[in-house]
Amino acid sequence: MTGGGVLLISPDALLIKLIGLPDAEILVWRGLLTAIGFLAIVLARHGRGAAAAYRRCGWTGIGVALLFSLSTFGFVLGNQYTRAGNVLMILAGAPLIAALLSRVFLHERLPRRTWLAILACLVGIALIALDDAGVGSWRGNAFALLAATAMAANFTLCRTRQDVDMSPMLTLAGVIVAATAVLYGVSGPGITLPAGATLAWLLVLCLGLLPLGFTLLQRGPLYLPAAEVGLLMLLEVVVGTLWVWWLLGERPSPAAFAGGSLVLGSLLLKGLVDRRVERRQRARGAVQHGLC
């Protein structure tokens, strides 16, 4: 589920490049359209029980919506104010932040293989971002750090209510992003309605891919520790780089190829080990059940 969500949102950076709108405008339309998309998904899933699905989220859901909004602002504005390599390297710290938050607040212990996979992926992301990294602006770096921290905190908060699906609250997150960006745009050049290819890409991204992808991602903490969800999200960097290479002809460097291979290899190896451990546990449980 988490991996599928990551693949759906992987063209995000590519489509933002193709859309090419100013800060306030991309945030307004991204927030508004994703809110409509999230609402449509909730109505399709729950029908007449949609209102109850929102109520079940409670105050925790409000926190999830606020944190998701902060991560959206951080990701979009981070890419506007600093180099993409800086953003990638800072976002790669999200699994570590999630692991620390989960350890402190939820007392969750991660197996050694997860820590090794996180460290290997950090090295891989650093190799991908190496060519485009630099000092950047402190403002852009701060936005990227905000995105990484808010993302990790969001997944950790969801783990406190493992019996409740928090994905409906992403509708509120979209509204918060759009409303805040409208206030920002009032003092700037204003908000205009895009047209043509810009509008088409905007609809594909914000009405389709992002609502579906983030709904799946937001359900990830129901089944996985927050650090594991954050770790799988690093797959977006690799696949997103391949999208840009394929459609825009921006060929990755040899270091980026090596970094992407390291991330994919680490996630694949960890997945195989997890599957083997799970099978052993099931077999052990079956034997114990038979003895009882």
TrEMBL record:
<feature type="transmembrane region" description="Helical">
    <location>
        <begin position="229"/>
        <end position="248"/>
    </location>
</feature>
<feature type="transmembrane region" description="Helical">
    <location>
        <begin position="199"/>
        <end position="217"/>
    </location>
</feature>
<dbReference type="InterPro" id="IPR000620">
    <property type="entry name" value="EamA_dom"/>
</dbReference>
<dbReference type="Pfam" id="PF00892">
    <property type="entry name" value="EamA"/>
</dbReference>
<dbReference type="GO" id="GO:0016020">
    <property type="term" value="C:membrane"/>
</dbReference>
<feature type="transmembrane region" description="Helical">
    <location>
        <begin position="113"/>
        <end position="130"/>
    </location>
</feature>
<keyword id="KW-0812">Transmembrane</keyword>
<protein>
    <submittedName>
        <fullName>EamA family transporter</fullName>
    </submittedName>
</protein>
<feature type="transmembrane region" description="Helical">
    <location>
        <begin position="136"/>
        <end position="157"/>
    </location>
</feature>
<feature type="transmembrane region" description="Helical">
    <location>
        <begin position="254"/>
        <end position="273"/>
    </location>
</feature>
<keyword id="KW-0472">Membrane</keyword>
<dbReference type="InterPro" id="IPR037185">
    <property type="entry name" value="EmrE-like"/>
</dbReference>
<feature type="domain" description="EamA">
    <location>
        <begin position="22"/>
        <end position="129"/>
    </location>
</feature>
<feature type="transmembrane region" description="Helical">
    <location>
        <begin position="169"/>
        <end position="187"/>
    </location>
</feature>
<feature type="domain" description="EamA">
    <location>
        <begin position="139"/>
        <end position="269"/>
    </location>
</feature>
<keyword id="KW-1133">Transmembrane helix</keyword>
<feature type="transmembrane region" description="Helical">
    <location>
        <begin position="84"/>
        <end position="106"/>
    </location>
</feature>
<feature type="transmembrane region" description="Helical">
    <location>
        <begin position="27"/>
        <end position="45"/>
    </location>
</feature>
<feature type="transmembrane region" description="Helical">
    <location>
        <begin position="57"/>
        <end position="78"/>
    </location>
</feature>
